[in-house]
User: Fold this.
Amino acid sequence: MKQRVLVTGGVGFLGSHLCEALLAMGHEVLCVDNFFTGSRDNVLHLLENPYFELIRHDVTVPLQVEVDQIYNLACPASPIHYQRDPVQTIRTCVHGAINMLDLARHTQARILQASTSEVYGDPQVHPQQEGYWGHANPIGLRSCYDEGKRCAESLFFNYQRQYGVPIRVARIFNTYGPRMHPSDGRVVSNFIVQALKHEDIAIYGAGTQTRSFCYVDDMIRGLTGLMNQEADAGPVNLGRPTENTMLELASLVIRLSGSRSRLVHLPLPEDDPGQRCPDITRAKALLDWSPEVTLEEGLEKTIAYFRALIR
Ligand code: NAD
Ligand code: UDP
Assistant:
């Protein structure tokens, strides 16, 4: 059935792919963004579509529109961007969540929160299951994002308990793919851009820290699947259940891009988590979801995107 779907953060990396997927599913899409990290370029190809509407708006300000579903993605996701204006990051996470939850409450819309593996902080349990409460520093440099997202989750579950708002909460692990901004600052885009320019690849710390990397198409399938299933399942991890060290990622990027780059080491940022890997048992059972794109395939597509962009 055709739905009117609001996507906040809709011109960002994930948001633009989500808008595209929702239009392809036959929905009307209202894309809201304040362009803090996202770019109009990401949705240029959608602007002619009569079922797509783009509104410049900051989610920290209340919004009144008639919608059936809300995907709340608005928030800078890269550490360099969310630490640029940490107070605004907290406002976006917390006031943004309140405003979107109020909208969901008044329109009786279903609302999905783009939460994050960062709610687990620097985890002491591996792999991370949804029942793990995490190990986050409440006052460190990353706390504007970690604690902002943790507070947003609390708001979601409290709006559900107190007002019966139908919520979905996705804990997204590191996701990459075309349309990441070349100066986004996250590891996959940094490594690929450096490799394609044959510049030194900057590994922060020893490079033995791990992340799990999910290709964007798999993530979008997970997000829409979670939104449209009927169970009230609590938070759901979405990510690739395989870990790679940053050293492994760098050598894979160098090999796949045919680069002459060498590795250099820079200091590890404060509170940088040592290990991250999702347990996706719940997503498998609930959504029949698991990532299909291998890291090598996903990197090849992303390298091709950046190669064309840089040229
Ligand atoms: P992104 O930075 O590309 O996109 C975020 C979008 O939100 C941008 O278009 C930005 O302009 C917009 N935005 C920021 N503050 C806003 C505000 N106050 N009002 C309106 N719009 C605002 O990042 P992304 O990777 O696409 O991430 C999207 C969401 O997914 C974020 O909420 C992020 O926390 C979450 N997430 C992403 C990842 C990942 O690996 N990509 C991992 C975990 C969680
Ligand atoms: N990282 C790195 N070089 C870079 C960017 C990041 O070695 O140019 C490391 C970073 O220290 C972290 C990992 O890569 O350990 C993932 O960083 P990213 O910012 O992509 O995501 P997050 O730390 O939020 O998971």
In short: The two ends are 42 Å apart (CA to CA). Residues 83 and 141 are 7 Å apart (CA to CA). Residues 78-79, 174, 186-187, 190, 202-204, 209, 211, 246, 268-269, 272 surround uridine-5'-diphosphate (ligand 2) (CB under 6 Å). The first strand starts at residue 4 and ends at 8.
